[in-house]
Amino acid sequence: MAFDVEQFRENFPDFSSTTTYPDSMLVYWGAIAYALHSYEVFTTLYDHVTSLYVAHKAILQAGNVSESSGNAVPNQFSGAISGTTVRDVTVNYVPSQASTFKSGGDFTETVYGRQYLDVLNMYCNTAVVW
Q: How far apart are CA 67 and CA 73, in angstroms?
C-alpha cells in the first residue's frame, strides 16, 4: 500500500507547502509508518494513526533541514531556557523531559506526536511506556 500524499495534505493542511514538506519526505515517513503499524490492530483508525506518525516525523525532519541549512546542528538543544546573558550572548537550557524515552521519546515534541501518543494510549487500552 502506498502512502496517499494528496489525501494527507487534504487532511492536514499544515503540510500544504511542498517546499517545506516535499512529497518524497512524506512518502518516506509514510512507508515507515505502514511498516510499524498493523492494520489489524488499528482497523478504522489505521489511516489516522499512520498520518499522525507521518505528521510528527515530517515536522521534526523539516526542522532539522531548516536548522542544518543555517549551519546549526539539528535538534542540538531541547528544553526550557534556564538562563540568559544579553551581551556576548549566553543561553542555558534545561534538558528537555520530552527527549527522554520515559516520557514518550520525541513524540512529546510536536502536537501531532502528542496526539499520536493519545490515540495509542486510548485505542490500545494500555499506557505506552518507552
A: 7
